[in-house]
Amino acid sequence: MKLLIFGGTTEGRVLAERAAALGAEVTVSVATPLGAEELAGLDGVRVLTGRLDQSTMESLLTDFDRCVDATHPYAKIVTAAVRAACENSNTPLRRLLRAESSAKDVIRVSSCAGAAAFLAERTGNILLATGSKELAAFSQLPPQQLYARILPTHEGIAACEALGLPHRNILALQGPFTQKLNEAMLEQYRIVWLVTKDGGSPGGFQEKLAAARNTGARLVLVERPAGGGENMDTVLSWIKEGLSCR
Q1: What is the C-alpha separation between 55 and 61, in angstroms, rounded?
Q2: Planar angle of CA 111, 117, 118, nearest 5 degrees
Q3: pLDDT class for 233, splitting at 50, 70, 90?
Q4: What is the pLDDT of residue 61?
Q5: Phi/psi class of residue 232: alpha, beta or left (left: φ > 0; alpha: ψ in -120 to 50)?
Q6: 25-30: strand order across its sheet
Q7: pTM of the predicted model as reported, rounded to 2 decimal places
Q8: Where are the alpha helices (DSSP H) in the chain?
Q9: What is the CA radius of gyration of the chain?
């Protein structure tokens, strides 16, 4: 059975490794070289690097028996394109989705724009841990008040510069981070507001939450887009079913 995984996440790597061990012919499509690095060292797994539109996805899917969307929980545009491409190519699809975190005493907003509107009426330094693609939503806030934690890529740095952030406010690092390192950053930059998404355990969400509580920072949580998925065991059972039918 030929399996195509749209990945770039921690669970995408785990799924690829376990599916290959079961005997599937596994190909993983990732958008960036950074996503490809996540898959380094996997035996029997082919990696395709580059962003794909829906039409290209459909063409690619003609060579595969099944597909798994293992992209980030907030990758709603990619998820919609994968779903449409699978429907149009009649390729069976499953969505692998990491579990949500249960968090209390946080400020919940529906979008980064909502977070920016909330913070526009507050004072204090803000750490943005929502990714470089979301930075434009905070363009109306004072740049000197913003600290952006982004992946160490040219695109990420460019997004920070486009927002007018001082370079000393750019934290180009690849997580997830320990609670202690989160605490050190919050204290070092006197952060009052930590804006983040619910990346679950693989994204280090609990470590961010604990660090915010211990340092007195308030956590502003951008909630996940609507839409469900399945856990690792369920998706692997589906893959096993496909292998047994061949």
Answers
A1: 10
A2: 90
A3: very high
A4: 97
A5: alpha
A6: 45-49, 25-30, 2-6, 66-69, 93-95
A7: 0.86
A8: 10-22, 33-37, 54-61, 76-89, 112-119, 154-162, 179-188, 205-215, 232-244
A9: 19
Asked if residues 30 and 39 have their Cβ atoms less than 8 Å apart, the reply is: yes
**Amino acid occupying residue 19:** A
Alpha-carbon distance 102 to 236, whole Å? Answer: 25
CA angle, 71 then 96 then 98, to 5°:
85
How high is the pLDDT of residue 246? 65
Is 39 a residue whose pLDDT tops 80? yes
Taking the C-alpha atoms of residue 73 and residue 120, their distance in angstroms, rounded to an integer, is 27
Tell me how far apart the alpha carbons of residues 123 and 44 are, in angstroms, rounded to a whole number.
Answer: 52
Q: Pick the residue with more confidence: 208 or 40?
A: 208
97 in Cβ contact with 200 (< 8 Å): no
Query: Peptide bond before 225: cis, by omega within 30 degrees of 0?
Result: no
- Interval 76-134: pLDDT, tens: 999 999 999 999 999 999 999 988 887 888 999 999 999 999 999 999 999 999 999 99
Q: Starting at the edge strand that comes first in sequence, how are the strands of the sheet with 125-129 ordered?
A: 107-109, 218-222, 191-197, 125-129, 146-150, 170-172
